Amino acid sequence: MTQGHTRRRFLAGTGGALGAAALWPAGSAEAAGVAGGAAGKHVAVLGGGVSGLSAAHELVERGYAVTVYEYYDVLGGKARSMDVPGTGVGGRKPLPGEHGFRFVPGFYRNLPDTLRRIPFAGNAHGVHDNLRAGTETLFARSDGRADLHFPLRRVTTPPRPQDITPGWIRDQLLAALQLATNMPAHELGYFVNRLLVFLTSCEQRRDQQWEKVPWWDFIRAEDFSEEYRRFFGIGQSRNLTATKAEESSTRTVAGVYMENFLVFGLLGLGHDGDVDRVLNGPTNEAWLNPWVAHLRSLGVEFVLSTQVHDVLCSGGKVTGVRVSSADGAGSRVVTADHYISALPVEHARPTWGAALRAADPQLGRCDALRTDWMVGVQFYMRTPSPMVNGHVNCLDSPWSVTAVGQAQFWDAHDFPAEYGDGRAVDCVSAIASEWDKPGILYGKTAKQCTREEFVAEVWAQLTDAVGIAGDPGLKDEDRLGWFLDPAVTGMGGPEPANREQLLIHPTGSLYNRPSARTAVPNFFLAGDYIRTGMNLASMEGANEAARHAVNALLDADGSTAARCTTWGHYRPPELEPLKRIDEVRFGLGLPNTFDLG
Question: Which helix (H) or strand (E) holds 325?
């Protein structure tokens, strides 16, 4: 589609920039975007996942004409849910499948802001009201070992500023961990001390020291018990980032999960809402379909089943993008005033040719970023199978299996009445994060298994963990069927492939992450590989990166529209004096005050 055609369609539509200008209140940021000269300017967004849709949302609210090009025939990327073919009977919808379960922690701030701005019938706060809170995490053990139930209730009365001291934080964490685990006091004490070291580390130390130190080494996992290694090492890195604890950047594991999810979440500091949240229905129904409908109403155009091949660069600017249908047919060049690449990094890199890479060296550094496999399978159950009111982390699973029983949170749906043939009443959604270690049934790695063997292995590792003496937990006879993400192909063959891999965060990866702004004045980057406060493959990182890309575009365009708000991670002001001390110590080559080695 040509740029001129897109502009004419946009300007003619009542949901486009001219129609929006009439609808937005005078003086609003959105009206300012139209008044600032954006009306009629066209942006091509490459990729229709969370980052691409977030960029389109911010742009169209500021008066830009937006066309989103997406490889699949549906939108949402790895976040989307998908129908299980041939399972809808008697007027019911097909059973819902997905790449993996959605997880919206309370420390997310950028994505929840977007969710509030997506209208949803009957909800005062849009799609955000479709979030439901889990109350605990189950660290499930195998071979009859005692499970660990970790409560996730948020502190309802925030601590007083004078209480937020290292000693108070240490005592609170020790109390919570002693309640939830069976580890010796000296191991818990050492781990909490390591958290205090990170909490009081200045940003320079985090970026220049802890980014280079593996999480495994930071917590001295080799020096402590197997329980310590399993709970604090493997369980908090592989299941979180799909990165091995021996490789994971301490800056990522401690800065994202430990600091924000565990410490500040349990202490009730700086969170958008409850610590652990999921959607109250299939992702498409609870979030993505309303989002796409809203964006269409504002004038966003979606071109689906379209593969991006080359971002064309000449004279220091992007001149167009060569695309085709998803099967490679019908090659053509599309043009726009500005371009945002919102493809996952593994799909974005091949589209950056020599001229574009020469114009901005940071693109070449992206070649060093790594991805790995983290894929889900859904089990459809004939009996309710909640396991726990939250997520399950199978600590002893060789494939680092995590899971959630979904129907317990889908209060807006009657599962058997709405989905499948009426027999399934629940969906247990499980994810395997380790694909290169042997399983417990066949002695094969996940990548070596056929699809059937892979599913059998995940089920065996899950049931081995959640079953206890006298109570088998999930029962084989209750399982009706399963669904595995079709992005995984060739399983059991010589060349298994996964089109939807996950960015991982080994040490030093921060230095290869690009900014949203490039040296090419009309080309911008979005996606969870962009350097943001999140520094983690996630929907939050994708959304924040899109906001940075739009802000960079507004700057380049000289727009007077209000810039997108971005939220970084919460930083308690009470700890800032200690961080300033650490900044001095780091500059002098000294360790952190609490770092006892």
Answer: strand 317-325
